[in-house]
Amino acid sequence: MFSIRRHANSIKNLKSGTCLFTVCVLAPVQAYAVAPDYDDLIMEARAGNRAPLLDYLQAQEKQTTLTANQVADWLQISGWADNNEETLKVWDRYHTQIAIPARGQIAVARALRNEKKWNQSLVVWENVLSEEPDNADARTGWIMTLADSRRNEQALTEATNWAQREPGPDRDALVAYVYHAQGKNWDAMLAASRAETEDPKNKDSRSTLIDALSANRVSGPALDLSENLSDTDPMKRRLELDAAAQTVRAAYTPTRNEEERFIVADKALARYDQLLAAWKNNPDAQADVRRARIDRIGALVIRKRDAEAIAEYESLEADGGAVPSYAKRWVATAWLNEEQPAKAEAMLMSIYYPNGPIATTPLSSDDQQDLFFAHLDNENFDAAKRQVDGIIKDSPYLRRVYGSPTPQPNDTWLLGQTLLTQYQVATNDLSAAEKHSERLARTGSGNQGLRITYASVLEARGLARKAEQELKLAEVIEPSNLELERQQAYVALDLQEWKQADELTDDVIARSPDDTDTLRLARIRDVHKMSELRLSGSQGIASDSPISGKHDFTLDSAIYSPPINDNWRLFTGFNFATGEFEEGKGISRDLAAGAEWTSRNYWAEMEISGHNYGDGQKIGGRLSAWHDFNDNWRIGGSAERLSRSTPLRALRNGVSANGGDGYIRWYQNERREYQLSFAASHFSDGNDRIEYGLSGKERLLTAPRFTLDFTPGIFGSTNSEENVPYYNPKRDLSVVPGLSAEHVLYRHYDTVWTQQITGAVGSYWQKNQGSGAITQLGYGQRIQWNNVVDGGVMLTWDKRPYDGKRERNISLAFDLNVRF
Fold first, then answer.
1. Given a cut of 50, is residue 5 above it in pLDDT?
2. Quick one: DSSP state of residue 629?
3. CA angle at residue 174 from 172 to 179, to 5 degrees?
4. Radius of gyration for the alpha carbons in the chain, expressed in angstroms and rounded
5. pLDDT in tens, 415-433
6. What's one GO MF term for it (predicted)?
7. What does the alpha-carbon distance between residue 215 and residue 11 come to, in Å, rounded to a whole number?
8. 661: helix, coil or strand?
9. Of the candidates 393, 443, 442, which has an alpha carbon nearest to the alpha carbon of residue 420?
10. Which CATH superfamily does the domain covering 442-528 fall into?
11. Does position 177 have pLDDT exceeding 60, yes or no?
């Protein structure tokens, strides 16, 4: 029963006092004659010391036959001591032998009711009422027992009829009890309020109202009314816990910003700390201490003290007691925030699906979302898809509302459609996600969340400017929406709108500093502001190539400073190359320094470098830049003095080159892109080289952990000179279509470990040398960690003709990018 059972105890106390008065006034003369101190024992029992009288009656029973009044006294006293077992044993021994007075029968009826023996209790109550129809205690107990035994209609009829015949606070309190037993808590509170209004000083009336308020979760006023209760009273402890739990629930109510929720959660935590400190040494309050610890978990989760919430839950589990499902949901949230999705998923499944694929109770929208994202974060895509399909299948677009002739939009339908978009993004099916989210955004133009979701899909596809336009449209509805600002900040970072990104991120942090999504955005912004180390190179393993030589090794490195005034970064770098040729070993060393500039739609890098390749120190320079016209088109190029693309063998023979290049890139999305490039070089020996190429990517297959791309490529070159000491075909052309596959070996939030397999078969044509086959195979692995480390290695085998002779090359390429 809920706390309103307190009213039953109050009535029992009232009836007990009435019966005590009866004992004192009507105790038979025979008892006094047999035991001159019997009256003193009665008075002691009334004062609370019941053992002497009970011991006396037990001893007297063995010496002589007890009178009916003595048996009634025994039943009453054991009833006061809440010793139901003894009360019923005495009743069983005597009720068939002597006629026990009504006061004794009332004690027995209460004991049977306390033992939930409803039918037996009703028989005794009705027997008392047949003897004393006007006995208010008996009628009250009878009606309460009717309510307890779920004889709802009879209990309510008897209670209301009695209240109409004899109006008063006690009758209204009884009606409140009956309503509560039927789960009609608002009706119970109305009756209890009426009882308290009629007699505010009546202890039972106030107690009944407290119980009714508490049952309806109006915990604050209930606690205010309990000022007359001592701090050690179990009722007072329960009301304190109800009020604290109400504060926790209030902390989960959506507010304008996170700070307001934190204030409420901090208030709850402070109150729990006081209660736990006051009750921890009270043996009678240990159940209340445990409940306080359980409810406190909710406030810890709101306050983002997730590690403490998890530790408290594990401590409660270790104690051996059960933790209720509502607290386990909080713990699951904490585990998700702590990036432990496997534990969160297992816990939520144990709550919602303890017996198999059918949920024990219908899941709310919040429950559905928590479980869905636990599936996604744990990479359990099959379970996530089953859940989404189930929601969509069971949720029509419109639903009928009782009493309304007009069908209403179904929020659960919209939830299923939104989760489907999230599933498609998580499983890398971005084309389907874009179509689906665009349809939702266009048909629900007044729904800001749908436009934000559509924009996030566009950004994931590399279409940042289109995403920016959608977010501008969404901004009209509610400009200060936190999720809107977060997404705008991500798009601003992609578009190199650094000041805008800072302003948006700073505002989001000020309004929700500890929110998980905010922390993720702040982390991305912080990574952008870090220094950066770039390393790349290759190591020849077995090579006959006239371009790279044998035992070749290359290393390119650069260190970039943190951003200066948002747009600038300084850098310095060192490049090294070596290889063995027929004429000897070649070595090149470059030391460079420069500046990088970035702004919306633009990137540029300026560099001054010192070159040493065996012919003294020479000064070079480079200017590189690109410009984005929109999401799809980019043009870029560079100009160099002492070009870094000069073959090492040419440098080994004292030949350098100046040059430049340009390219045009067309990017549709992550599934398709092409680039046309052109480069020209002038060598110091008079040779002029022209190079051109067309490369691209076409996505063939996408799965949650696997992608397969077709990578066509056409490359050619012309040279004005032939008799030079480096590989320099008069004219050549290669056509190399290939495949590139990537498989995710492990993924946990921002940590991703993948493997790559590449293969290509093509043809190479060289003027005066005919044509030959090109074959390439490669295998590599890459790891990305915490947004600050991105590195990989690739083992490559290729075989192609040079000057008509097929040569083999096995090499290991590597690259590493570290933010610090």
1. no
2. S
3. 95
4. 42
5. 999 999 999 999 999 999 9
6. poly-beta-1,6-N-acetyl-D-glucosamine transmembrane transporter activity
7. 18
8. strand
9. 393
10. Tetratricopeptide repeat domain (1.25.40.10)
11. yes
- Count Cβ atoms below 10 Å from residue 302 Cβ, excluding itself: 24
Q: Please state, in angstroms and rounded to a whole number, the distance separating the CA atoms of residues 175 and 157.
A: 10
Looking at per-residue confidence, does 284 or 449 come out higher?
A: 449
Decide: 204 and 170 in contact? Cβ < 8 Å. yes
Q: How confident is the model at residue 409 (pLDDT cuts 50, 70, 90)?
A: confident
pLDDT of residue 231: 56
Question: What tokens appear for 724 in the block?
Answer: 């030079």
pLDDT of residue 397: 86
The helix/strand/coil state of 391 is helix
Return the minimum-mean-pLDDT range out of 156-160, 529-533, 713-717: 156-160
> Which is nearest to 673 in space by CA: 664, 682, 685?
664
With 0-12 / 13-18 / 19 or more C-beta atoms within 10 angstroms meaning exposed / middle / buried, residue 804 is exposed
Class of domain 532-819: mainly beta
User: What are the b/e assignments for 418-436, b being 16+ CB within 10 Å?
Assistant: bbbbbbbbbbbebbbbbeb
Phi, psi at 192, each rounded to 5°:
-65, -40
357 phi, psi to nearest 5 deg: -75, -10
Question: Nearest 10 degrees: CA dihedral of 273, 278, 284, 290?
Answer: 10
Closest C-alpha among 514, 513, 507 to residue 488:
507
Question: Are the beta carbons of 624 and 660 closer than 8 angstroms?
Answer: no
DSSP code at position 67: P
And the tokens for 482? Answer: 């936190």
pLDDT at 98: 85
Q: Over the chain, what is the mean pLDDT?
A: 86
Asked whether the beta carbons of 94 and 71 are under 8 A apart, the reply is yes
CATH topology identical between 1-147 and 532-819: no
For 320, the token pair is 């051996």
CB atoms within 10 A of CB 808: 13
Domain ranges in the chain? 1-147, 345-427, 442-528, 532-819
Separation of alpha carbons 489 and 495, rounded Å: 10
Task: Give the DSSP letter of residue 3.
Answer: G
Full-model pTM? 0.77
pLDDT in tens, 254-282: 766 667 788 888 888 999 998 889 888 88
Residue 466 has pLDDT above 60, yes or no: yes
Q: What DSSP string describes 501-558?
A: HHHHHHHHHHH-TT-HHHHHHHHHHHHHTS-EEEEEEEEEEEE--TTT-EEEEEEEEE
Residue 734's contacts (CB-CB under 8 Å, 6 or more residues apart) are: 713, 714, 715, 716, 762, 763, 764, 765, 774, 800
Which CATH number is 1-147 given? 1.25.40
Please state, in angstroms and rounded to a whole number, the distance separating the CA atoms of residues 336 and 353: 19
Element (H, E) at 400: none
Span 33-55, mean pLDDT? 71
Q: How far is CA 758 from CA 672, 702, 761, 796, in A?
A: 17, 16, 11, 9
Residues with Cβ within 8 Å of residue 65, at least 6 apart in sequence: none
3-state secondary structure labels for all residues of 230-270: CCCCHHHHHHHHHHHHHHHHHHCCCCCCHHHHHHHHHHHHH
Structure tokens at 72: 């009634």
Question: How confident is the model over 9-30, as pLDDT tens digits?
Answer: 333 333 333 333 333 333 333 3
SS3 state of residue 330 = helix
Q: Using one digit for the tens of pLDDT, what is the confidence trace for 794-820?
A: 999 999 998 888 888 999 999 999 999
Q: Give the C-alpha separation, 177 to 160, whole Å.
A: 11
Tell me: the pLDDT tens digits for 205-249?
566 666 666 665 665 665 555 565 555 677 778 778 888 888 888
- Give the SS3 label for residue 114: helix
